[in-house]
């Protein structure tokens, strides 16, 4: 008998060998068998006379452990033969490199015995190796009699178990075991692995698998360009969804919770990179909350890619349901998507509809008119405010709280809601801009378009036309009254001047003021936006310019606004200017169109063409990406709607 002593202390070996996961501890013994080119491995849970788990046996037909290998590997922690070898004799990837896997039995049993047979030039030879949990640094090797058979292999027997390990006999343990080895069997079909009487069979356990497109991740101090991710969808439920991390050879080294929203899917993800081998070499992959910055960044990219994958899968699954709803006449969309915005909307809509139909009995049993009404509400929520999806799922469809939360998270976690919201916003802006161009440039409309009830109605709800800082403004009734009073006072002072007439010869008030309050984080500060609109046919001259300047000065001096922290943004908009006022509008060393600039106010003069051009420049890039197009019919309909409001 030979005694081999590891050059390490017991407390260190205990820490190194410990794992809280019994399935993973058994898996290490299976990996050792696979590294020994075993083509058949049996994990057996042996029962005692009382029916409890008495021993764990792992039997393989691999190449066995030679006397030389035993002396080297069992006597040297961290200096395994695998360190300098990347492939087995059968060309398989090597799992372990430091010889630590065999000590994982410590988490399960007080004693581990290896019965092994190997072949050399002299023929077959056998030996027994034994390690006790109380002395992990000692391994007793006993040479056995020459075997009578012709087969090599190893049997590992774990006895004096530390716990009952009832969970090892459950279907969940088999599923967990399968998640570890199914990818290996996919890669090496000649490997047959059994666990507690059940074979690891990808055809039985795997519903489908998919390799995701290669990813290149730029980190602050390095680039990860070898990352490969495989997704396996299981046929039966799994207790947890995991991302399994492996080295570049595709061997699982550790796992972390997936934290990916994928309603209705049971899956495991496998991410392979040399980067994960580095993390595993530092014994960090088994930490539940590993906070290494580079690792977190890479995992974030993986989770994002998985989210994209499962949104696509859910969209695929929804096709049958969607076609059925179309046949019933309950689907609220017509034809093919008009543009990229609607394509995105429909993807989320189809996913949510599939969820509703699958998990809400009330909806699936409803009559067609009720289904169409429900789906129309859902369509409008997704298009205009995706955050309302939770309300629709809960109040209208009566979807269960757990499913409701999961499907709502599909939007929130992946920012699809933000994408759709932004797309809808840009689409609305592009349409508004096209309508404005029609009103002020198209001869069909510009001769008859009105400042009041038409131009001001469009501008009032779209003050972003004058700058993104005015995206949100509010009506200010007090300011409107002041503007009207000032206009009347100044008008009275000009009674002797020629009246301004319309094209039909009638008189009317030319001024069209639009006053808005700009929200400010400081409640003591007031900021106002004042816009005076001139009808498209009016050519702005000296008289109009002097008049508006008088308005500006008068409004700023009103008692409501003096001695307060108030700032003003004045805009005068017309189609064109007289030549003699150009020098007053376009001044050197000032932004284009800034007519006056005081301590607390700016007075801008713009043409409708400038307003349109500046906004088109801001929207051009996004518009091109989203492929937003507005038809002539839609423009004419919007203008008609505005005029209908005036009539009412």
TrEMBL record:
InterPro entries: HATPase_C_sf. Pfam families: HATPase_c_3. This is DNA mismatch repair protein. It comes from Aurantiacibacter spongiae. The lineage of its organism: Bacteria, Pseudomonadati, Pseudomonadota, Alphaproteobacteria, Sphingomonadales.
């Amino acid at each position: 008998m030979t005694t081999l002593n590891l050059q390490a202390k017991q407390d260190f070996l205990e820490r190194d060998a410990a794992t809280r996961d019994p399935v993973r501890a058994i898996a290490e013994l299976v990996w050792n068998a696979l590294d020994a080119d075993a083509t058949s491995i049996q994990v057996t849970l042996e029962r005692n006379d009382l029916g409890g788990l008495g021993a764990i046996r792992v039997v393989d037909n691999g190449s066995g452990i030679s006397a030389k290998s035993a002396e080297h590997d069992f006597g040297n922690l961290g200096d395994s033969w695998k360190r300098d070898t990347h492939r087995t004799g059968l060309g398989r990837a090597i799992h372990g490199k430091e010889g630590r896997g065999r000590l994982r039995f410590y988490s399960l049993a007080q004693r581990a015995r290896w019965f092994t047979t190997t072949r050399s030039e002299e023929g077959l030879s056998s030996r027994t190796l034994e390690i006790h949990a109380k002395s992990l640094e000692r391994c007793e090797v006993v040479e056995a009699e020459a075997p009578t058979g012709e087969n090599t292999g190893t049997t590992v027997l774990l006895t004096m178990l530390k716990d009952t390990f009832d969970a090892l006999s459950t279907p969940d343990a088999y599923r967990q075991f399968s998640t570890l080895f199914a990818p290996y069997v996919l890669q090496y079909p000649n490997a047959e692995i059994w666990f507690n009487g059940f074979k690891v069979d990808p055809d039985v356990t795997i519903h489908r698998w998919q390799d995701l497109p290669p990813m290149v991740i730029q980190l602050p101090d390095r680039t990860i360009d070898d990352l490969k991710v495989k997704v396996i969808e299981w046929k039966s439920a799994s207790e947890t969804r995991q991302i399994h991390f492996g080295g570049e050879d595709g061997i699982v080294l550790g796992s972390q919770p997936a934290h990916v929203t994928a309603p209705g899917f049971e899956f495991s993800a496998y991410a392979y990179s040399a980067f994960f081998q580095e993390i595993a070499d530092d014994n960090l992959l088994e930490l539940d909350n590993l906070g290494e910055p580079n690792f977190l960044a890479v995992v974030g990219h993986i989770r994002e890619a998985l989210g994209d994958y499962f949104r696509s899968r859910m969209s695929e699954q929804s096709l049958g349901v969607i076609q059925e709803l179309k046949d019933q006449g309950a689907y609220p969309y017509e034809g093919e998507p008009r543009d990229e915005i609607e394509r995105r909307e429909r993807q989320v809509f189809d996913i949510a509809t599939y969820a509703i139909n699958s998990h809400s009995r009330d909806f699936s049993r409803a009559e067609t008119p009720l289904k169409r009404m429900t789906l129309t509400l859902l369509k409008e929520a997704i298009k205009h405010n995706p955050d309302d999806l939770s309300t629709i799922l809960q109040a209208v469809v009566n979807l269960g709280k757990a499913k409701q939360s999961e499907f709502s998270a599909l939007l929130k976690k992946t920012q699809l809601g933000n994408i759709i919201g932004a797309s809808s916003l840009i689409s609305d802006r592009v349409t508004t801009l096209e309508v404005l161009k029609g009103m002020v440039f198209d001869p069909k409309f510009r001769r008859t378009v009105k400042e009041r009830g038409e131009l001001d109605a469009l501008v009032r709800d779209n003050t972003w036309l004058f700058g993104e800082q005015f995206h949100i403004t509010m009506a200010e009734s007090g300011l409107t009254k002041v503007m009207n009073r000032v206009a009347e006072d100044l008008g009275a002072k000009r009674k002797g001047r020629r009246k301004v007439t319309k094209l039909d010869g009638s008189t009317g008030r030319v001024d069209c003021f639009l006053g808005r309050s700009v929200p400010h984080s400081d409640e003591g500060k007031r900021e106002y936006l004042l816009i005076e609109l001139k009808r498209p046919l009016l050519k702005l001259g000296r008289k109009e310019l002097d008049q508006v300047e008088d308005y500006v000065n008068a409004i700023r001096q009103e008692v409501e606004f003096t001695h307060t922290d108030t700032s003003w943004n004045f805009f005068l908009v017309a189609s064109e200017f007289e030549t003699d006022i150009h020098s007053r509008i376009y001044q050197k060393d000032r932004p284009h169109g800034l007519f006056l600039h005081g301590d607390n106010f700016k007075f801008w003069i713009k043409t409708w063409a400038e307003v349109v051009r500046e906004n088109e420049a801001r929207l051009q890039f996004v518009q091109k990406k989203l492929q937003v197009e507005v038809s002539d019919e839609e423009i004419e309909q919007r203008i008609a709607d505005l005029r209908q409001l005036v009539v009412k």
